[in-house]
Amino acid sequence: MDTCEAPFTSCGGVCVDTRSTREHCGQCGVSCRFDQRCVSGFCLCEQGALECGGVCRDIQSDVEHCGGCDIRCGTLQVCVSGTCRDDCPDGRNVCGNACVDLQTDALHCGTCDNACPGNQSCASGSCTCEGDLTACGTQCVDTLTDDTHCGTCGTTCPADRTCSGGTCVCRAGLTECDGACIDVQSSDAHCGACGNACSPDRICTRGDCVCPDGFTDCSGDCVDTLVDEAHCGGCGAGCATGETCFSGACASCAPGELPCGDACVDPAIDPDHCGGCDIRCDPGETCLGGECRCDPDHLAPNHNASQATRLPIGDLRPGAGRGGALSGLRLCPGADDWYRLEIPGERGEVVVELSGDCTQPSFNPVIEVVNESGSPQASASSGGASGCPRLATRLGRNTRYLRVRSPDGTPGLYHLAIHFDELQERESNDVRSRANGPYHRAAILHGRLDDDWGDSTDFFRFDLHFAGEMRFFTSNCIAWNNIEVQNSSGSRQGRASTSSGCSTWTGELDPGTYYVRVTTRFFNEWGTYRLNFVGGPVTEVEPNNTPATATPLGTPRTAGEGALTRDDVDHWRITLTETTNLHLQTRGTFHPCETDTTLELRSADGQTLLAATSAGGATVHGGTGTCAVLRASTHPALQNLPAGDYIVTVRGTDGARGPYLLNVMRD
User: Fold this and answer.
1) Distance separating alpha carbons of residues 108 and 114, to the nearest angstrom
2) Would you say domain 547-666 falls under CATH 3.100.10.10?
3) Does domain 432-535 have CATH number 3.40.50.620?
4) Between the CA of residue 426 and those of 286, 431, 458, 483, what are the distances in Å?
5) In the Cβ-directed half-sphere of 433, how many Cα atoms lie within 13 Å?
6) CA separation for the pair 99, 87 (Å, rounded)
């Protein structure tokens, strides 16, 4: 069924009222929980129930929420009509802390704690399905329309079929042809009707076999009038003998040229048509006299150590970084390229990178560092399509050579870039008395460790004027490292060791002076890292811990800044002035997602409409925590929200606390 009369909507071929249908509440496929009902397109708690902590509670009988959320009865009491009592009236039975009717209670059907499975109900003390529904496993389903239990339990319809009247039939817009559901509007084998196949040069469009785009039907043949010499520019417009059709016009090529595709080319010099049409030279080759040749670049000859080209890295000085680049270089078969690097002073770090044709699978150059006797010191190879090689190594005083070669002899073009950083002195923060700092608030700090040169420890000082949860963590770790937090007297407050490069320590600290010690994880470890600090006093936007006291944010395209204390909840009120697709997201104030959060969208009276959980929402990981995301493109309940007031609820995951930003946008 394609169309339904208002206010009904076609869902799976069945007309339903999405304003009140639990299985299609608000739109097709959005099913309410078993304890909810569909009211005006929203899933709400059943009449007489109240949502407490994201769950529908019967405040007339729930001992944890007797008469209202979080009003708890005594250990041996029951909740009757919203009042805590010591016994049950009206002949009902006591099950745990509740008065229940064993004849109708789906959680205590027949006996206490005998819960009916799935969406079954309890009637006369037995679990059963209501109306025409059938029990399939633990669920009550309509076998006339259920795609998973069509006709009988366990009969699943294929993806291109739907269940109608208990039979799997082709979905709307598809036709059954030879047992398969086919779109006869676009199928080349069944165009317009079953068995009506298009010829190889035609395609099916809107149920008709037509020529593809760019081709014209000339007397039953599909031709390209831009290049067809019998139909040049139009059907029947033929070119004269010796002429070629170019872009729909007949023309002749100049002497020595060939018509290749839609152009005249010179096969003596054209690298894409060298010696003939579609004969392409390899990267790095040129076409001369109709032959593909690899001509040496402007640095040749530099094919051995004695001919090596001195790299343009400038006048290196101790402690100074220098670099340079060479462009337009070409590797030819059997001819390696050699470069000379003269290292002044003490040891330093050399980084060599290639770029160019080595991004193509056919050209896989290798970089090698060799000493004056020709012994290899280090090497790096290309990954073909994955990219060009990059080599980073440490070199000492004396001359070194870089050799670039193509192992399989394939020629290619490349560019070479080199950077040299000579390091002679250790950093000054290797003891507590020379610690970098002091720092007083969130920061991103840079460090370098080199155990091989005796620089295996860095100290950073933090003077904190507040108490709270602090987080120190390293990132961008070339050097694997550990973190140790010490107080002013040097006593350890905590330590974090890495198994993957970087380390993270989180803990409660009082006001005072602290030192963070970063050390290498392994012997001879070296490289750079970043030390990150996140922490500070938590201030709260109060009062907004109930929907009634929600902080107003106004219309979308606004942001609110808040903070969560332990076990805290924040509420924000937004106003939609028109039907809106909504996008909600939390993010960090200093680092991405520095505080673990979850999001909920509530109606103006506090009823939960959608929550960002593992089952119904999305999360984004970044920085040191997890942000929450609710957006209309992935959550149908956020699409076409009517104008009015809504409440956005922000919670700290598992009691997390800290600052956050709330973004409210149109999706």
Assistant:
1) 5
2) no
3) no
4) 51, 12, 10, 20
5) 0
6) 8
For residue range 163-183, what is the model confidence (pLDDT) as tens digits? 999 999 999 999 999 999 999
pLDDT beyond 80 at 309: yes
* Assigned CATH topology for domain 305-422: Jelly Rolls (2.60.120)
- Spatial distance between the Cα atoms of 149 and 318, rounded to a whole number of angstroms: 78
**What would the two tokens of residue 386 be?**
């994955």
pLDDT exceeds 80 at position 106? yes
Percent of the chain with pLDDT over 70: 82
CB under 8 Å, gap of 24 or more: what pairs does 166-173 form?
171/13, 172/1, 172/2, 172/13
How far from 135 is each of 102, 119, 121, 311, CA to CA, in Å?
Answer: 21, 9, 11, 80
547-666 shares the fold of 432-535: yes
pLDDT the model gives residue 171: 92
Q: Look-up: residue for tokens 């994880």?
A: 521
Q: Residue type for 45, please? A: C
Domain boundaries, given as residue ranges, for the chain: 1-44, 253-293, 305-422, 432-535, 547-666
Between residues 627 and 302, the one the model is more confident about: 302
Tokens describing residue 21: 């249908």
